[in-house]
Amino acid sequence: MSKYGVMVMGPAGAGKSTFCASLITHLQLNRRSAFYVNLDPAAEHFEHAPDLDIKDLISLEDVMDEVKLGPNGGLIYCFEFLMENLDFLSDALDSLTEEYLIIFDMPGQIELYTHIPILPTLVKFLTNPGALDIRLCAAYLLESTFVVDRAKYFAGTLSAMSAMIMLEVPHINVLSKMDLVKDQLRKKDFKRFITPDMTLLDDDPADAAQKKAGINVDDQGAGPTDSGALMSGASFKRLNTAVASLIESFSMVSYLKLDCTDEDSVAAILSYIDDCIQYHEAQEPKELAEDEFEEE
Ligand SMILES: Nc1nc2c(ncn2[C@@H]2O[C@H](COP(=O)(O)OP(=O)(O)OP(=O)(O)O)[C@@H](O)[C@H]2O)c(=O)[nH]1
Ligand SMILES: [Mg+2]
If you measure from the C-alpha of residue 263 to the centroid of ligand 1, how many angstroms do you get, rounded to a whole number? Predict the structure, then answer.
């Protein structure tokens, strides 16, 4: 029997846990079952108590105390420990029926999504048809406030693309915290950021600010120290242009918009997730209880 799940990923503070909480609330309001798995060994506060918490297996605090690692090395240690104890996941998830949406709340350390092969192995284990057989969708969140800084936006998009290529499961990319940019950017202007392309660099507000400060951003021949600062000047612009061109040529990333304060927005993201994993196709028609039947 297939199971259904979504793995919520993205950089630190992107709004992953908030989205998981809004998603669970929305599922509950729509009489759907959620199973919330916290895989962040440092997470302390939850709006909905996790049904399964990695901290019951290993906590970052203990690792940092006992193995004397820092927070990032400690996180990698926790995940390596999880990979050696996968029964912790299979024991809890094995009995779930196809009615459930299993929600994995991931940590925000970016190295987990880019250059360490732990996540692909974990995803392979979760989706293996001979074992848990979870139809999994990855949801990669990026903060919508990043659009104000083009360099950040393209760097974030590159990390989303890297996660997409690495995981090989259906994937959606989401610009979170839309309520924070709604007033600054008109809908029409925001549309440009849904599909990243190089034209977004044409009117980079950072260029104007740098020109005002007397930094040369246009000199094609300028070297790496032309501006005196590493994150500005012509060479930095060339780097951004190269990254933007790479993203455009792959043409893999486009974004959905999410505002967790708006239930319709959460519902829209859920319907994309449902489509990706074909959740509805596996559901048995539900019989209504007598009082619900009368209500209908
Ligand atoms: N305005 C606004 N704030 C949000 C939204 N989503 C999350 N936040 C805030 O952003 C901060 C970080 O949110 P989290 O959900 O903890 O982010 P996270 O990605 O789980 O963070 P880590 O697990 O630490 O990587 C919190 O202060 C949230 O209240 C949103 O849709 N709108
Ligand atoms: Mg979190």
Answer: 16
Tokens matching residue 282: 């596996």
Find out whether the beta carbon of 17 lies less than 6 Å from any atom of ligand 1: yes
Which part of the chain is CATH 3.40.50.300?
3-196+253-285
What is the distance in A from the centroid of ligand 2 to the CA of 286? 33
Q: How far is CA 181 from CA 62, 192, 260, in A?
A: 39, 14, 13
Helix H or strand E encompassing 256: strand 255-257
What CATH number labels 3-196+253-285?
Answer: 3.40.50.300
* Residue-wise pLDDT tens digits, 130-163: 889 999 999 999 999 988 888 999 999 999 999 9
Ranges of the chain with pLDDT below 70: 208-232, 286-296
- φ, ψ of residue 237 in degrees (nearest 5): -65, -40
User: pLDDT tens-digit profile of 77-133?
Assistant: 999 999 999 999 999 999 999 999 999 999 998 888 777 889 999 999 999 998 899
Query: Ligand 1: which of 8, 18, 46 to mutate, judged by most atoms within 8 Å of the beta carbon?
Result: 18
